[in-house]
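step: validate -> pass
step: tokenize input -> pass
step: predict -> running
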Amino acid sequence: MKTDFNSVRCKCKAYYYIFIPELSHENNKKIQDLIESTRSHLDEANYHSFNISWRNGVDPNDAEHKKYLENLGNLFATHIQRLVEKVHNL
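step: predict -> pass
step: emit ->
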């Protein structure tokens, strides 16, 4: 199942409002600790990591960001489909 982002229209472009300040080494360490702690409580199948270049938000017109959005959407759709199939088979 492939997500068609051209058919999706977002009324609010949240990526224009995301601001991530530069973090001190101490704060960066705390965020990394939080990520690792959270990850340790998740089943491996429920944890996904994506790396993209940050350019003042996610721009769906940027080729790299467009690919990221497609991958994220496809992953989400596949996960939901598996959950529905799992419940259906109960």
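step: describe -> The chain has a mean pLDDT of 77.
step: cleanup -> pass
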